Amino acid sequence: MLNKLSIIVFIVLLATSVWAEPQRIISTIPCITETLFALGLEDKIVGVTENCNYPAGAKQKEKVGREIVNTEKVIALKPDLVLMLEDAQRPDIEKLKKFKLPVVTVNPHNVDEVLDTIKRIGEITGTKERAEEIVFDIQARLNEVKRKASGHSRPKVFLVVGYRPLITTGPGTFVGNILKLSGGDNIVLNSRSPYPEWSFETLIEADPEVIVIMDGVVEQREVLSDKRWAGLSAVRNNRIVFIDPDIISRPGPRVIKAIELLAELF
Questions:
Q1: Hey, which end of the chain has fewer CB within 10 Å, N or C?
Q2: Is the pTM of this model over 0.90?
């Protein structure tokens, strides 16, 4: 009798361990979608948003909204895991939780927390080993960036996220953390707003050595033809770089590409 009971318990535990891993996953934000694909979970993803444009396979997935999540669509897809970004999606998170949906949130604010998030999603989805491999690779590449930067001076950097009006980023933001890890010194030292508006007069006075501009904010020809920029060191020395906003602003596994690109420039 004892042996039969032991066998039954073993079977129950085995079934529980197998089915504990989610089989129908919804991602409601691009950085999480990119992480899921990097973990090799594309076949288990049943829904993403219209903003999830990378990798190419994400575009083929069922859509559950854009900035706002379509609750009815999420329910219809019968997910056993809905992954969301806490700070950016609070209203939608609360709404989905009211329908007893299996919501799990992550909330990375810097690159170290991105690595922790990748590991956490790996644990939740049964891809712990793959997550550890990704984190190890990113950490190794970060260490290489630091090694190459050692002994070099840190240039003064200004990042443009908006042009009319001129909007930049503070040091406490995710993007600000990337600038620091890349070897640059953000000229925005203190700001009540994470993305403050700056005047050209203030920019000229600070005179950054490097200007980083997110693609789509302004055309390079417009910057170079604007006489207000002409006196800046970065313009005179042709140290202006345009960067894909997706790799620099999304707290996901591609962030290392942004750091390597900027580090090379700095």
A1: N
A2: no
